[in-house]
Amino acid sequence: MERKNWRRAPTPANPRSVKAKHQTSYRYVQPLEVLEWKWERITMDFITKLPRMTKRHDTIWVIVDRLIKSAHFLPIRETYTSERLSDLFVKEIVTRHGVSVSIVLDRDTRFTSRFWRQFHETMGTRLNISTAYHP
Questions:
Q1: Which Gene3D superfamilies has this protein been placed in (predicted)?
Q2: Mind listing the domains of the chain with CATH numbers?
């Protein structure tokens, strides 16, 4: 049997230094606030393109408390305006849990409209718009 001698390449002192970066930089990422009280800081998003229900609802508006992970699932229509969503928000969330300090939401046009921003500015709620890229 013939023995082959293979030469190994020298290993660098820090193996991580030769790895390629496949992710974007995290230098602009800001951590969320420390949670202190329930329903003080919430997140919200839509589940869309669902089959129509009995009252022609085709979307579910999901509102989640970040501290205790309690959620409200509100059936809505995809065509609801920002004004209608704000009325529903006050009726279902604010009356039960009070006004939130901050809300994390995505870049949906209903959330980024001038009316929605003015509505929350009047209530004293800070809107934190999340980015589209989530590593």
A1: Ribonuclease H-like superfamily/Ribonuclease H
A2: 41-129 (3.30.420.10)
